[in-house]
Amino acid sequence: MKEMAQGRTRILIIILLSLFLCGALSGHPWKPNHYVIVDTDGGTDDMKAISMLLASPDVRVLAIIASPGVLSAENTYIKVKSLLNSFYHEGIPVGINSETRFTGREMPVALEYTWGPENGIDPSTAPGYSDLVKATIGAEKTKFSFICLGGASTAWSVIREIPEARSQIRDFIWSADGMSDMEGFNYNIDKTSSRSLLRQEIPVKIVRRALSPGKQFYSEEFTDKIEKSGSVYADKISEFLRSETACSHAFSFEATDEMVPLFLHFPELFINKTLGNVSDCSPSVSDEMKTSVLKILKGETVERNQVIKIIPDDPSFYFDDIAPSVSTIINRYGIDEWTSGVIANELHRHLGVFAIVGVKMGIRAREYFNTGVDEFSVVSFAGSAPPLSCMNDGLQVSTGATPGHGLLKVVNDQPLAPSAEFTYLGKKIRLTLKSELAQKISSELQEINFIYGLDSNIYWELVRKSSVNYWLSLDRHEIFDIEVVE
Length: 486
Prior knowledge:
Blueprint (H helix, E strand, L loop, with lengths): L1 H24 L8 E7 L3 H12 L3 E8 L6 H14 L7 E3 L11 H5 L16 H11 L4 E5 L4 H9 L3 H4 E7 L9 H5 L1 H9 L4 E4 L12 H8 L4 H10 L2 H4 L11 H7 L4 E6 L2 E6 L3 H11 L25 H11 L1 H14 L4 H17 L7 E4 L10 H9 L8 E3 L8 E6 L2 E7 L1 H18 L4 H17 L6 E5 L2
Parallel strand pairs: 1-2, 1-4, 2-3, 4-5, 5-6, 6-8, 9-10
Antiparallel strand pairs: 7-8, 9-11, 11-12, 12-13
């Protein structure tokens, strides 16, 4: 009996330890499964692939490197920065590799098509790829995939020149024509680097195009579905597919580099043949592939909530004074801002202007770095005295940086302001509500308080009405000053 009791005790201890370890491993519900550095050579298919990677909350793009191939490294850098700026992802670092023998072909279709506004983008200010990779490895210890959308020059240089990269790179995912094909464009950009990359010990997964050359993947019907997906990333791709530039070249409607994000999320859709450390990954073409592309573009690669499946976007679900504004807010600012605003105001227990400002500020900071929730620390300078401190509730919900997570600090010992600092991977920015707007909101609240007082129902009704109006009218891309602190 004693031995049986001891046995049961040991089993219980093992179970408890297992539960603890499982809890530790899955203790960050918002940590994405895929961390990536992307190397691109500026092709229009790269633009589609990068947009898909940015669309997924299950991917964290740590950095992007512009290398020569379809375009020169300099023109590729301009394309990438313009794309990120158009998505308001200014905080994603972009480096450049200008050190290769290959200078880029400057293919007309790729050169002609703009990924976003290109004014003011100067490639001469870009960090070198080596410094960028070293800084990224120093700031983020999670293993990452190195995605090659062009040649192998930069990938092989990283392995050769940065010893610490060997332990941080989980695998190379290379868009090419298969492990035995030596005629493809990406392989021939730098044959020496291609051969070397395939011989080194880190796994290389070569992802093939969806169909044979010349066969169309993007039909008119599929483009319509992309256009109706409801994300800025889907809009970017459908805009390209409907452009005169795309229509002038049949390659635009094939699917090549776009198979990389599809493989990353849905490897079961690919047939893999492995020889040594190299895998040849061929898509098994089916309607499910297109459905999966739409899922990525809609951001449906992870569950967004923890308790409820969805927060309704049906106006009839909400109170009469809110209902007329629901669809407009979602269409203007996105479902993420709407969801955060709903939760923040329920947490706050009343509709408040500065709570809405905090939501918009937090979403803008996440947008800047292209992060999910619970991924950076926040220092709020709004203090602990209402109404300004109400901003803190909006910040908590929109960023996931809560006191419980140890990621939110509220400062009271300096001049208070509707301002906060956000730190992510060693980079810090400060967002501040524009002074004229902050003064306008504060003056309005003071006037209502002076006339009616905080104990009056009329005060809270007017604050509620004002909050809805500001939620509708304040565009988070226009109301904040953004300062790079470090």
